[in-house]
Amino acid sequence: MEGFTVEDETVPTVSPSVAPKTEGEADGSPQHFDLSAEDPELEADGGYDNRASSFEQAFDRNLPAAAAGGNLEQIRERLQFLSIEDQKTVCRRECQIAQQQHDALQRQLQQTIDRYRRVVQLHGAMTSHAGAGESAVRSECVMDEEVLQKYRERIELLEKMLSTLCSEATVSLPRLTPMERAKGFAFSSYANTAVAANKLKDGTAPVLENARGALVSFASRLRRGSGEGAGGYAGDTPAA
């Protein structure tokens, strides 16, 4: 499966062999994504590489979600082109991505709390250690007491949110191996392409057939590589 070029100004990524850019060096130039590109924000855990590739993220952002106008009927429409086992793989991949985002949210909340707390500490240091003649000037240059109180309230709110997230028991499926993640992404990509082509009917029949052939070939290589046999789909009939 070949990569493609998308615009991503918020989370620029690079190939694993290239050193990451420092803050300020990142620009809005097009980035090249492929299945080997990894998101540095999602760390490996428990010996598994659970980092979602930037290629996957770019693709998933284009999928219809329930909150963005998608619905159960659209999801069923996509999954009908996959076998039952491949539907399960796609579902497990989605569960793992959701858990990764949950973990990332917890880290982001903690980092935000630390930043707000640092501002309060810096303000206290500047006002308490300044000389008597400088104290009023320094205090005025930083922030007034009302703003400082807002920061403290924000810290308290975020700490409650983080405590709630951390206290809830999380239930997740066994983690996918890198091979299973690649399969889940390939199946999801194919299903989305099949839906779009099917809506255009006869005019895009060759496109759908080419996509199906590419998926069968790719899935066959994945299964051989993981010791599952050739596998593949039987005919063109969608799964029930």
Automatic annotation (TrEMBL):
Q: Domain of life of the organism in this record?
A: Eukaryota
Q: Where is this region: Disordered?
A: 1-49
Bias (Acidic residues): 1-10, 36-46
Official protein name in the record? Uncharacterized protein
The species this protein was found in? Cladocopium goreaui
